[in-house]
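Write out the 3D structure for:
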Amino acid sequence: MSQTDSLSAVDFEVSATAGDARTGTLSIGETEIRTPNLFPVLNFYGGGTKNSVYGGGIHRTVKEFMISADRVGAGDYSEFFDGVLTSVSSLTDYNVTRERYEDYIAAPIKERDVFSPFSGTLFIDSGGFKFLNNDGIDGSNFQVNIDQKTAYEIQRRMGADIIVNLDRPIAPDDSHEQRIEKARKTGENIEEFLRLSSDFDGARFLTLHGYNYSMMDAFLTEITKYCSAETLCSSFDGIALGSLVPKKDDRSALIDAVIDCRRVLSDWGFDDLPLHVLGISSRAIPLLTALGVDSFDSSTYLQTAINGGYFVSLMETVNVSEADFEQCNCPVCSSDLLRGWMEDKENAPYQKDRLGAVAMHNLIVQKREMAKIRDCISRSETEPLIQYIESTVAQDKPTREFAHRVVNHSLGGYSL
């Protein structure tokens, strides 16, 4: 359990463990989210106005599912939006005017009438990865330079429940000197971030970067030149491990990074805080959860749909034109309206609606698997989670060896 000096309590309570895996509840003010869990990435503001749910193409259709809009059948999809991640940098995805930009940050997301059905935990990333090569928000007739003060102000005005400091992610080909320089700049931001957000009424997550123990330890050592380890421990409510997106397809590297991250967090006194891994999901979820990761975020559900991919399971994807919708009982595939959209029988109003329905289906598949994983861990023994991994990840030949490695490392190995 942790509690910051913010205006509302932030608590992380672990209710059960299975080896290194754990399940619990992250409470932030009036919001709660069960862990481990997945935050789908979603752009709330996509160039449009209130009348178009603020636009965004396929993002608009997904938002309509989130708010149970009549246009998508008015079903209740709220359980699949118990947590959502958006980013300060998403405001750069659309060439908006100054007037539209000011409107987007004029009120908290959950206080807008159109988004009022959404009551989940809102995680707003600082956009460090995207701003690494572009220091500002570019509009059609304006530019906003992004520094720590501006990033925090946008996060606060958009009504975030969870925020992270503005960071400087590393790249695989960075030299040691480049990594240290990025850590130095991040440390400067952290010092300012804690000062600016001292009265923030939500959770603050500390960004951590590195691919192995020495990199992460060096990162933390560098940032403590700007903020003591004691202050970091008492001020932050969680850890967000970044810079892993370039290695998302390298299972061995991901496993190494998370194992070493847990060791570093233990040595630095952060092991009781929830651990979020930025930008990683889908097939890696069961393995990283078994290693002790508490939450993830990803746009895989949506990007896969844009490319015509329909999740048969967490591990298998087919082209939507080849999907057998009768084999799925999710609310999307069970709807005549939405099944017709996905079948492309000329009744989907727009392509974004056809693919938006596929994206919603994909998200449901992911979220249901997260629920199964939580259920396995909640039994407080390793065998249910081992059996789950064996029936999912280990069935995929390219990842089988990594499944066995994780079972042996974090779940006590296979019983005789």
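The longest helix spans residues 351-378.
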